[in-house]
Amino acid sequence: MEMCKVYAIASQKGGVGKTTTAANFGIELAREGYKVLLIDADAQGSLTASLGYTEPDRLDETLATVMGNIIKEERFDKRLGILHHQEGIDLLPCNIELSGIECSLVSTFCREVVLSKYIYHIKHDYDYIIIDCAPSLSLITINAFATADKVIIPVQAAYLSLKGLEQLIKTISKVKGGLNTKLGIDGILITMLNNRTNYAREIVTLLDEAYGGAVHIYDSKIPFSVRAAER
Ligand code: ATP
Ligand code: MG
């Protein structure tokens, strides 16, 4: 029986809290006793850095190595590159080398499903796999959608971009219509909420008008936290 759930945390809008959400969600699930693999799928390596590997570009084995091996059809140990973090989660880190992979993907056969091939083998080791996507609808992000069960879309309360959201939701439905029929949007997560304003209610109204309740908005919202901003 297939038990592992794969989540992609995505939004092409930058700085909305994707990486923070991925890290906190992963750490929380690990605390509850689940086996969790976080995958950093952003060449900036922010998730990798936020978990304490402060110089991602010095790492030799990353998601880029793994995807590179799959593209070249080279055999490799499925645990290659995975770091075990003290919070009890595993991390497949990422660094700038992923930009190179992104370029070589363009001319790769079945370029959208390179990451799926990896997940297919590694998912038996985990209860949850969480993929932190870069702020773009790049081929790497499409690879994440092609293998995910669910997408979580963080939206920053004060800077909602309905156009951006529209584009993202369209892309997700395209992938669902072809490459990955099991894909779904788990929900929109409102982040960095300032309680002195009414943004949350406005956003929920706007989104409900736009999608008629077809896209779930989580009841829990992430407040703006000075501590997080200072990190
Ligand atoms: P990118 O698009 O660059 O990948 P992102 O969507 O992954 O960005 P984060 O890196 O998680 O966003 O967050 C952006 C910045 O906002 C970081 O400096 C982070 O520490 C800060 N931040 C995240 N969540 C909160 C919060 N709830 N309150 C205040 N600051 C936050
Ligand atoms: Mg990020």
Ordered list of secondary-structure elements with their pairings:
Blueprint: E1 5-9, H1 18-31, E2 36-41, H2 46-50, H3 63-71, E3 83-84, E4 90-92, H4 97-105, H5 114-122, E5 128-133, H6 139-147, E6 150-156, H7 162-177, E7 184-191, H8 199-211, H9 226-230
Oligomer: single chain
Structural class: alpha/beta
Strand tally:
7
Low-confidence region ranges? none
Number of helices: 9
* Element pattern in H and E: EHEHHEEHHEHEHEHH
Biggest sheet descriptor: 7 strands, mixed
Bound small molecules, by name, code or SMILES, are: adenosine-5'-triphosphate, magnesium ion
**Mean pLDDT level:** 93
What's the shape?
globular
Please report which band the strand proportion falls in: under 5%, 5-15%, 15-25%, 25-35%, 35-45% or over 45%.
Answer: 15-25%
Largest beta sheet: strand ordering: 3-4-2-5-1-6-7
Can you describe this structure?
This protein is an alpha/beta fold. The protein contains 9 helices and 7 strands; from the N terminus they run E-H-E-H-H-E-E-H-H-E-H-E-H-E-H-H. A 7-stranded mixed beta sheet has the order 3-4-2-5-1-6-7, with helices on both faces. Strand 6, helix 7 and strand 7 form a beta-alpha-beta unit. Helix 3 packs across helix 5 and helix 5 runs parallel beside helix 6. The chain starts with a strand and ends with a helix. The model has no long low-confidence stretch (mean pLDDT about 95). The site of magnesium ion has 5 residues, from helix 1.
